[in-house]
Amino acid sequence: MQTYETERVRLRGWLQADLVPFAAINADPEVTEFLPAAMTRAESDGFVDRIRMQFLERGFGVFAAEEREPGEFMGFVGLNVPSFEAKFTPCVEVGWRLARAHWGKGYATEAAREALRIGFAIHTASPKSFRSRCRRTFARRLSCRSSACDTIPRTTSNIRAYPKVTVFAATSSTA
Fold this sequence. Notes:
Blueprint: E1 4-5, E2 9-12, H1 19-27, H2 41-58, E3 62-67, E4 73-80, E5 93-98, H3 107-123, E6 131-132, H4 136-141, E7 144-150, E8 165-170
Antiparallel strand pairs: 1-2, 2-3, 3-4, 4-5, 6-8, 7-8
Helix pairs in contact: 1-2
């Protein structure tokens, strides 16, 4: 798998060495606040297996993300096809999950821009095919525009039941 770099972040394939720190991220209640639950080590490892399969099946997915210097694993950033059904699906979303120590430093924004660039440049997807369930401020940093505000059904089991989820579609200026 190819590696991509920004000024401060490296997006790469998943390594066996990522499993322990990723399990710690997935077990952190603050990181998983908006997920159905924190993950066990086995669930976290299974998630990485599914991520690897998505790359093989689709040619894209969520990359392992690390700081370029000192090369520390931070979590993931990339593109994902949501498994739940909603008014705006099917779609491709920008996703990220970083260890708390890396929050508030702009890493997610920087890496998400690169993930979008990869998606548009390499997979030649149209701008309308990329959508993100991201916070309004994050979306603005990515030059996203609001496309809809949809209610996710409370019966959706793979995400926490939100009263509203704002959906953004990346504009072509992010490519």
